Amino acid sequence: MRTYFNDLPKTAFGASYWIFAVYLVLPLTLMTAMSFKDANFIAFPIGNWTLSWYAKVVQDKQFLEASLYSIGIALATTVSATIIGVWIALLVSAEKIWGKAVIFALACLPAVVPGLINAISMRIFIRTVDIPTGTFAIILAHAVHAVPFVIIMVLTRLRSMPANLVDAARDLGADPFIAFLRVTIPYLMPALFGGMIFCVLTSIDDFVRTFFLGGYQPTLPMLIFAKVQGGMSPEINAMATIVLVVTTAIGIYAEHFTRRSRS
């Protein structure tokens, strides 16, 4: 009897986990299943199955253009956020810097501010400094949102870095810049790679900031949103499924690469 009561919390925790996992996966499974429905509407039962919606999506010029545009924005965002995030992380980790807590708090503020509030404030900012809406404004907003995650990942890695690695490089004649390139950057690579993947995924998925700061050319979330306004259809499910599969594959590969680099 005592063993039964001792195992009860563990059993309840395991059951709660699987209930939560089903809650997360079930809507995605239904969405994916509906993308194979051989009809112009979404409803059960599915009846006949088809791949025609996927063939239509991959031949859709709007979808391809929006995907390439989103990828371009994501890459520019990733480069900008990584450079700024590494610089701030190194600044915060330095010993003789005053106000490190304030610097860290301000740099991470965009991660805790609601997306809608952040988007409105960025819209007011670009109008104040006379920056037109469009690609540059979107990259600016996405980078501001992504920087805190790069900082946190790089700082976590930096705190586990033995100080004698850089000292050994300096003793062997490397100047600070060479020591940074040949010692610090390789050691930070798992965190950098994980942060960069996170930047790419959050940028591609960002709808609110893009909605407030975008121009006439739609990103992928904006295109899907516009199509949803005309009513749900298996074509939209096919688009969402393609995005889901690609982003999941990228995330799994990033996790595998990070684990292998740390081992």
Summarize the structure in words.
The protein is mostly helical and 263 residues long. The chain has a single domain, classed as MetI-like (MetI-like fold). It contains 11 helices and no strands. It has helices spanning 2-34, 52-58, 61-93, 100-112, 115-128, 135-158, 163-171, 176-205, 208-213, 220-229, 234-262. α2 crosses α11, α4 (100-112) packs across α6 and α6 (135-158) crosses α8 (176-205). The longest helix is centred in the first third of the chain and has 33 residues, at 2-34. The mean pLDDT is 84.
Summed up, what is this model?
The protein is mainly alpha-helical and 263 residues long. It has eleven helices and no strands. The model has no long low-confidence stretch (mean pLDDT 84).
What are the key terms here?
263 residues; mainly alpha
CATH class: Mainly Alpha
User: How many strands appear in the DSSP assignment?
Assistant: 0
**H/E series, N to C?**
HHHHHHHHHHH
The rounded distance between the terminal residues' Cα atoms is 43 Å
Q: How is the biggest beta sheet arranged?
A: none
Beta strand %: under 5%
Task: Enumerate how many helices there are, as a single number.
Answer: 11
Please give the structural blueprint.
Blueprint lengths: L1 H33 L17 H7 L2 H33 L6 H13 L2 H14 L6 H24 L4 H9 L4 H30 L2 H6 L6 H10 L4 H29 L1
Helix pairs in contact: 1-11, 2-11, 3-4, 3-6, 3-8, 4-6, 6-8, 7-8, 8-11
